[in-house]
Each structure stands twice: as structure tokens, then as C-alpha cells.
Amino acid sequence: MSSTPRSNSSTDNTAPDASAFDAIIVGGGHNGLAAAAYLAKAGKAVLLLEKLEQPGGAAVSARAFEGVDANLSRYSYLVSLLPQQVIDDLGLHIRLARRRYSSYTPDPHDGRRALLIDNADAAASAASFTTVGAPESEFRAFTGFYDDCRRLTGALWPTMTAPLPTRSEARELAVRAGALEAWDAIVERPIGEAITRSLQHELVRGVVLTDALIGTFARAFDEDLQQNICFLYHLVGGGTGDWDVPVGGMGAVSGELERAARDAGATIVTSAEVTAVRPGGVVNYRQHGAEHTAAGSWILANVAPAVLDRLRTGWVAPNTPSNPNHLREGAQVKVNLLLKRLPRLLDPQVSPAAAFGGTFHVNETFPQLDAAYRAAAAGTIPDPLPCEIYCHSLTDPSILSPALQASGAQTLTVFGLHVPDRLVSAGNNDRRRAELQAAVLKSLNSVLAEPIEDLLLSGPDGQPCIETKTTLDIGRALGMPRGNIFHGGLDWPFVEDNAPLDTPARRWGVATDDARILLCGSGARRGGAVSAIGGHNAAMAVLEAEKLESGRRTPPVSDEAEGGAEAVPE
User: Fold this and answer.
1) What is the rounded CA–CA span in Å between residue 334 and residue 436?
2) What's the whole-model pTM score?
3) How far is CA 365 from each of CA 110, 265, 440, rounded to the nearest angstrom?
4) Model confidence over 70-111: pLDDT tens digits?
5) Distance (Å, whole) CA 33 – CA 30
6) Nearest of 386, 406, 402 to residue 71 by alpha carbon
7) For residues 401 and 67, is the Cβ–Cβ distance under 8 A?
8) Helices (H) and strands (E) in the chain, counts
9) Of the options 3.20.20.140, 3.50.50.60, 2.40.30.200, 3.90.1200.10, the CATH number for the domain spanning 1-57+78-92+250-303+494-570
10) How far is residue 450's CA from residue 478's CA, in Å, rounded to a whole number?
């Protein structure tokens, strides 16, 4: 295939029928854009096909409320796992704002007291622990627990953009970092054991456990350790686990990746729904009612593995994923709100700006999280519903118009835990959406001094500015099977010692059962969240494979030409 980059302006939205490309990327989410940028910068002819009207997938900003000038991060909302290496490699102009406050957690039994973890004031944080009735030693135990975790995540973080380590190699990194205890706590045994062993207070334990449950329907002591993998991914970003606000909204991140891909020469075609991936690198897609075909030496799937299976039906066995974990259900409800101002708190000691300046935990004690799991597993919406709240506009007011900023308006994003996809169906989605929204508002109101409904802004049409997304809504909008925000269950960022690592695709964790089809999205090993790691690693696998193929095609140079030395391909 040609190695000459093909330019494509932002207004060009077509690709010639039957064109041949070095790589075709199916799906224009942030990972697909990252892969396109890396490959195009390497001189490859790249075609990216995105079914929606704009690239970005879940990492987009949108005016969610008609006629209201607020640019919300509609699905994904915070950034932790995006490596600085990717930002530097691709020349991305992205600003991430650090939040002063880590979290605020009202006591569900007495909302007048709460745990406030202030990254800038350790003494105030320690005093907050005693305010909620935790032992004097709890703050030291809490900080010590996370210090141990950071030794492990600091050792593992550099491996995320390198060929996969084996379990033994990853464990050896932990040993060298003095993090063997953390390795055993996170990788070998259910995370609930370490939490309950290290911490005594149920509210403090709950704050820690939530990192294991975002988008994951699991319990603290589950033996399959899916909650542990989720916990590790929530702490590994940057080696520190800090979660930052993208300035300008999540769309600014995807927008920069799109710019980098286009500037490098990638062809990006939107409103192009891929309908089939066929043998030999042939891709069929539909755009504006017309059918098109393209061919590529490599196919990079920035769609969920289960979606890729459907696109390949007819030449692979349907419904038989190579990894059953790819069919794991999502477990969340997402609610976006626009308020006239921040609500008053029951707690008189903390300002609303501080409480909403980090992650605001609601009804997330250790026992409440387990009770919510059991209720959802039995087929009912948890009451109270565990929730986490994020106020982006406090950290980044630029997502609001000057008029909204001047008025004191603020955005809230609510993420409800333990809402598995099994609770929602095509037949009951509208009813469930209304029930889940009511459950979210009820949970929030339980720790506020005034009903949040009274603070909702209204749009020009008179409708309150609130939108709720179920797992089914997310699945329909973004092609995420069962509403799973990670494209399926997460995997460890290493492989077992006996796993085959005999091809670049396997070494980089992006392989499928077809050597020329790679995963480049959240369904890749080390995928999940807004990271561009899946896209980076798939691009590296392609470039490594082509280098190996080129070496095999190069004939040995004669002894005479090299003065008697035999040429050895790299």
C-alpha cells in the first residue's frame, strides 16, 4: 500500500469508492483519532469512518439543553489516563485543570457533618475525619493506604504505553518499588479485604470502595476481582490517580486529537456507518443513504469487541467472543443538570464551592454500596441510590457563556452506581429513565438543605435543564453493548506468564483472531476511560509489524557488497 499521506480538510467528508488505504479505522472516538494521528504521522494512508456527525464518540461536548449556552461534557467527564507521552507525541494543545478538593462525603445518618478531603490542607482533612466520628488514626491509615497504592501505580504506569508485561514481570516491578503489599491487596485478593483491614469507619471505607465500582457491577469481596481491576485503573493514571477537568470540556480533548489526525493527513469521514468488515480488509459503509466500499491492509476497530463480532458475522461465528468479559454489562445512570446556583448544604461548616469542588459522594458508605448491589441484583432500583457528583464549571467556567457565569449558574454531572443494564429494556426504558432520574434527585436531596429541583434552570421552551442517560440510551447513542462505558469488562494491564506474545498485536494487547484486524479502543487490553492508550498501542503494533515484514522482504546483501559481513534484518 502507499505510504504517502493523504490530506483531508475539515470540510472534505467523502472517500473515493474502492479506495485502498494502509489502515482503515472503524469508529472515530478519541482512541480512533489517536491511532489515525500516529499512523498518518508515520506516513500511512489512513481512512477513519465515524457513524455520527462529528468525531469524538463518548469524549464530546454538547449543548445538551436547547437554546442554553452551556457546553457540557456529555458522556465522559474527567481525564486521568491520558499519557503526557501521547500529548507530546501528537503535539496536542490540551489543558487539564487540577481540582483542589479530592472529595466531600456527607454522613447519610447526619448530613450536618461530612468528610472533606482537601489536597491543599492535610490538617483540615484530618480534622474532618474526626468530625464524622472516625478514629484519630483513620486519617493516617487512609493516607498510608493510598501511599502504598501509589507505589504500585507509579511502577505500572510507564508500562501502559509499552509492550505488555507478563504477570511475573509486573510483580517484579512492584517488588522493586516496594509495593508488594499493594500488589497482593489489589491484584491477588478481593479489594474489600484490604479496605476493611486498613480502615475502620464505614463512610471512609465507602469512599475508597467507590473507585472499584465506577461503571462496574461488582461487590467488594467478589472472587473474580473485576472490582480490583476497576480500582487499579482508577488509581493508575499518571501513576498518581489524579482526575482532572479538561479545560473547554471533553470535546476539547477529542477536538485536538482530530486536528492532529487531519494535520497529519488522515482522511476522516463522518456520518459513515460501517455495515460490514469482510475478509481481505474490505469495509462496507453507508453514508447519506449511499453504499460505499474501502479496502485497507489493516483494520483497526475502535468499536466494542462485541460490535466488531457483529460486523464480521458471516465469516466468524456470531456471539462467540474470544473474551466473554467483553459481554459484561454496564452499571450506571448518567444525569446532567444546569443549576441557577449551587445548592445549600445541611453541613454548615463547608461552603458549597468546596463541597462541589471535588467528587461529591452521596449515600456511598461501605454498607450502603453493598445493599445497593443486592437490591439491583434482585431487580430493583437501589434506595437510596449511591451517587457521585462533579461540578465542572467551578474548575472551568469557560464551558458556560459569560451571561451564565455572571448569573452564578453551575453545571452538575451525576453518576449513579449499581444500575446494571439488566434493569433496563427497550420496553421499559422511558419508565426506567424517569424512575432513575427520580431516584438520583431523591438521593441528592437527602444531603442538601433545599430541593435541587427548585434550582434547575429552564430553557427557552420552559423545560428544566436536566437530562438522564440509561445504559440503553448510552448503548444506542454510542454503540456500547449493554451500556458498558469500557466496551466490556476491564482486563489487567499485564498478561499471564503463559500467554502468547509472538506477534506485535499480542505484545501490544490489541489482537483479535485475525492478524490484520486490531482493537484500538476501550476493548483493547489497557483500554477504558479517556486515555488514547488503545489507539496508541494499536498504532505501535501496526508500525512494528510493518517493520518486521519489511525486514523479512529485504534480501540479504552479498558478502562482497558488505566486505564479507552478512546483513541481518532487524
Assistant:
1) 9
2) 0.94
3) 13, 50, 16
4) 999 999 999 999 999 999 999 999 999 999 999 999 999 999
5) 5
6) 402
7) no
8) 19, 18
9) 3.50.50.60
10) 35
